[in-house]
């Protein structure tokens, strides 16, 4: 996890906050989030824990594309 991710997690934990993070750096999002909502062109396509979202076929298709 990079410095920004560590700082966000520290602030969240220190002050017991719920934080809304809009971010495209997926490694950081997966590392610091308890719950993720994934949008594709403004439409919600997935929601859940990082593990659930990481394995969702709609997320994989939207962010990685489909095999040629």
Molecular structure report:
By secondary structure, this protein is an alpha+beta fold. α1 packs parallel to α2. The protein has 4 helices and 2 strands, in the order ααββαα. The termini are far apart. The protein has one domain (3-64). β1 and β2 form a beta hairpin. The chain has a two-stranded antiparallel ribbon. It has helices spanning 3-15, 26-32, 50-54, 57-64; strands spanning 36-40, 43-48.
Give a nutshell description of this structure.
The protein has 68 residues and is α+β, with helices and mostly antiparallel strands. Helix content is 49%, strand content 16%. It has a two-stranded antiparallel sheet.
Write the layout of secondary structure elements.
Layout: H1 3-15, H2 26-32, E1 36-40, E2 43-48, H3 50-54, H4 57-64
Antiparallel strand pairs: 1-2
Helix pairs in contact: 1-2
The topology string of helices and strands comes to HHEEHH
Instruction: Note poorly predicted spans.
Output: none
Number of helices: 4
The oligomerization state is single chain
Total strands: the figure is 2
End-to-end separation: 32 Å
Beta-strand percent range:
15-25%
- Secondary-structure-based class equals alpha+beta
Approximate helicity band: 40-55%
Strand line-up across the major sheet: 1-2
**Mean pLDDT over the full residue set:** 91
The domain tally reads 1
Q: What Rg is obtained from the alpha carbons, in whole angstroms?
A: 13 Å
């Amino acid at each position: 996890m990079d410095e920004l991710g560590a700082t966000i997690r520290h602030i969240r934990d220190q002050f017991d906050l719920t934080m809304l993070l809009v971010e495209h750096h997926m490694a950081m999002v997966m590392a610091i989030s308890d719950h993720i909502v994934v949008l594709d062109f403004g439409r919600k396509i997935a929601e859940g824990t990082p593990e659930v979202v990481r394995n969702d076929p709609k997320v994989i298709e939207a962010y990685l594309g489909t095999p040629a």
